[in-house]
Write a structure and sequence with these properties.
With 592 residues, this protein is of the alpha+beta class.
Length: 592
Amino acid sequence: MPTIGVKRDLLFKALGKKYTDDEFQELCFAFGLELDEVTTEKQMLTKEQGDVAAAANASEEVIYRIDIPANRYDLLCLEGLVTGLLVFQGKLKPPKFDFVEPVARQVLKVDASTAQIRPYAVAAVLHNVTFTQESYNSFIDLQDKLHQNICRKRTLVAIGTHDLDTIKGPFSYEALVPDQIKFIPLNQTQTLNGTQLMDFYATHAQLKQYLPIIRDSPVYPVIYDSRRVVLSLPPIINGDHSKISLNTRNVFIECTATDLTKAKVVLDTIVCLFSEHCQQKFTVEPCDVVLSDGTVVSYPELAVREEYISAKRANAYIGIDETPDKLANMLTRMYLEANVDAANGDLLCVKIPPTRHDVIHACDIYEDIAIAFGYNKIKKSLPAFMQIAKQFPLNKLTEQLREQVAQAGFTEALTFTLCSRDDIARKLNKSIEAMPAVHIGNPKTLEFQVVRTTLLPGLLKTLVANRKMPLPLKLFEISDVVIADEDTEVGARNERRLCAVNCNKTAGFEVVHGLLDRVMQLLEVPWKSGDAPKGYYLQATEDPSYFPGRCAKIKYNDVVIGKIGVLHPTILQAFELTTPCSVVEITIEPFV
């Protein structure tokens, strides 16, 4: 859930009313938002960055930090938040966005080469904009919020904004070899080519995270004007030549993307929220995007679509009893202009504006009705039919075993589900390539690279952290591991396991063997001897993680359900342990 910070005094000025902190918190709650924190710039710098020197010069102006639902892109800046609240309070009618046709439209030509890296582009122009310092900051901050949210850190969409009066159309969107692209990046003084730019920003606090998106590509995307002036190198940085400022009057907005739908949403959001600052409010100049096949598409779309919902059904779903007229009024307050259908008094015609791309189904409209009505006002009621809940059988068995294993003298541990590749492979004398492991696509740390395929590494790490405790150390865990499985719908499956470790001056194989016998006794599984049709038994095996001759498979009805044995000394050394350990690990799912 994104959080925006707005200056309290600026917010109250735009709303036309001053509130106490409690009053504004109640307003936010009624609108479906949450006032997360009341702070100052100075406190934020001290708390979040620990920058005491910067905090000393920071403002003491009160800042409201407000949590915004992840799908409400229209509320990610002061302009959108103020408009939404004013419409909700009935002080403002939902704005209607319109096109203003210029003498000649700006044109963005998309070259076929861009298909190799970022194939889509959209564009628009905000004409006769008047920026103040606050609105300029809000404009930049909105782009950053969108980049982090719907744009998925610029992987799906990258936004570029330019001073139109400093550049000349038509514009071209191309993909070139890095060394052929030369320009002065934003707020820099020296000319860099694509390769040099990657090295230059490799240590940049903000931009270094975006470099991998295109760094290894043979070509980089770039946008030129008609004089071959570089506007931007998406998704990394804009050119310094066309940077916007407080004096900018005409803003050219371009979005390059790997997802065209997301690009349209982002463009609609930006132009709708900031067309408020145009001389002719809520108007946008369209641009023509010429595709590589010659097709011309006009952006932004600013589409307003109509949805019809049943007032009776809406009342039934929410648990209220309101007239269609009142429901229509509630929706209008939520920025969804609605009217009762003249031919059918039960139908509501709801207009979805281009700012509300989060409304994709009738249930989204019902949710807005519930918010406008007030969740706290909805009367509690019993379901129309009885439901009897019961515990999931696997979880019930897990809880029962936890209690019994603890009574057997073992201490329960709860370890991380994610671990490093070394933990499940190299440290266990195995190859990661042979492991059915699920790998994390973009791990943040080396400690969390894969999902564990065994509970053993977590318990051994816990032993290391508690090695100063008196021996013996007997730990157990009953949790899920994740196994890669191509036969499943998602390519992986969870498996509930029990793992126990005995760490003492001697390996104590009989301790974990005794625990296994106790668990099987509780599960009413007999020891299989002779020609018995069912039961469990041990079968000698070799495993690189265990001492030679001290490892066995655990079989239940002739199916392997786990292993038991004494850990190999190299495993102990890899996990920085100095005392022998014996281990038992089984899956408990066959016993449910």
